[in-house]
Amino acid sequence: MTNRVAIGLLILMACISSRALAHHSFAAEFDATKAIRLTGTLTKVEWTNPHTYFYLDVKDDKGEVVQWACESGAPGALSRRGFKRSLLKLGDTLIVDGYRAKNGANLMDARRVTLPDGQILSGASAGDGGPQ
Amino acid sequence: MTGRCKRGLAAAVVITGLTLCAGGAASLAQERPMVLDETTVPKGRPAPRTSSGKPDLSGYWKGTRQTRPGGNIGKDLPGWKLPLTPAGEAALKHNLTATIDPESLCIIGGIPRHNASGLPFEIVQGANKVVFMYWYSYFRLVPFTAGLKHSDDPDPSFFGEEIGRWEGDTLVIDSIGFKDEKVWIDENANPHSDALHVVERWTRPDYSHIHVDTLIEDPKFYTRSFTYARTWVLGEPDEQVQEYSCSENNVDAAHLGFGPGPIRPDGTRGYVDPAPLPPPVPRTEPARK
Fold it and tell me: What is the ipTM of this complex?
């Protein structure tokens, strides 16, 4: 492992040190073998417990728009790490990286959210046993 | 992995780390980790006492990174192997294959599960009772008036019928009368029956630490009693349990499978070898419509 990788990992660990409200096991809902990236238009935000949800209109392989739900940590947990409700603006294009629901629904665990200005936010419910 | 790939990975990791830190610089100053490194917490300052002379257990208590494996009630057993009876084995199988985590359905976790949780909790101690307040807006009130005895036939509940008493500087909580449906004894879906008997012995060895020694008996599901011990450390004075309405928007309930999912060799829940996320989008290439 190079020094740069080691330093980077340390920075990541320091930045994602807070364990959030693990309402349920990651593995009970999501498939860690199915990492995906969605790019879509933000259409709705539910800043709610036990999880926040935001919804994207995403073009599928056929060019048709489908709605995806992106699940994140509880509002309090996100807020404490700087992921504020006010950062999500309807109509914005977001890039969301995470894992698909095991049941095949258009639902993903939003571990990493990239805002239009390039800012990257951690949406993970850390402490749920999911990938960090 | 080629040298080019390694360099790319290194750059991606560093960019991600720096971006996360830079992007949240203002807020990170406010960040309050919910789990602390116990080695960084000072020791030796005497525990506060109430006007009655007993230790005051009040405070906002956080778990430590030294508590491993988290969420596993078998933490202190060799190989984390619980002494299950055949009925206990069947109950575990049922929990793993036919039940959704009760907490994810907004059902109270109860004791001893809350003591194995990764979440902080808060204690407020009064003259004759103590309240434990948990994230998820659950609480339990434990009376410790002298001479209390268990009921002959207590109504089953998630925390059980809890009777407190002081033995010197130790608050002993003796609990019976538990539910046997929609209960997991820990995060890993281990079972308990309505025969569960829990004895918690709470101490505050110094100002910054609180400790519990727990005796767990359940002759229906476990061949012998076993113990679970744990130490938490004090949070900041302005920290407290926050509002949390579990059933406000429990969308995920319809998508949850049975059981906690795989249990890793280290005794925690989760996948061993998850697929990596796509590399972060460099900040120099922002996402635009």
Answer: 0.81
Tokens of A114: 């990239």
Q: What are the DSSP calls for B44-70, one per residue?
A: -SPPPB-TTSSB---EEEEEETTS-ST
> pLDDT tens-digit profile of B21-80?
333 333 333 457 888 999 999 999 999 999 999 999 999 999 999 999 999 999 999 999
Residue B188 burial (C-beta neighbours within 10 Å; 0-12, 13-18, 19+): buried
Please indicate whether, in this complex, the C-beta atoms of A21 and B18 are within 8 angstroms of each other.
no
Option in B249, B271, B280 nearest A48 (CB): B249
Return the residue matching tokens 């390039």.
Answer: A118
**Which CA distances in Å does B257 have to A31, B89, B105, B109?**
11, 20, 12, 18
Under 8 Å between Cβ of B138 and B109: yes
Residue in A120, A121, A132 to test binding to B, most B beta-carbons within 10 Å: A120
Cα-flanking dihedrals φ and ψ of residue B22, to 5°? -65, -45
In which element (H, E) is residue A32 found? strand A30-46
Q: Is A7 an interface residue toward B (CB < 8 Å)? A: yes
The model's pLDDT over A113-131, given as tens digits with 9 standing for 90+, comes to 999 999 999 998 867 888 8
Q: B287 and A114: CB-CB below 8 Å?
A: yes
Return the number of other C-beta atoms located less than 10 Å from residue A77's C-beta. 27
Q: Does A120 touch chain B (CB under 8 A)?
A: yes
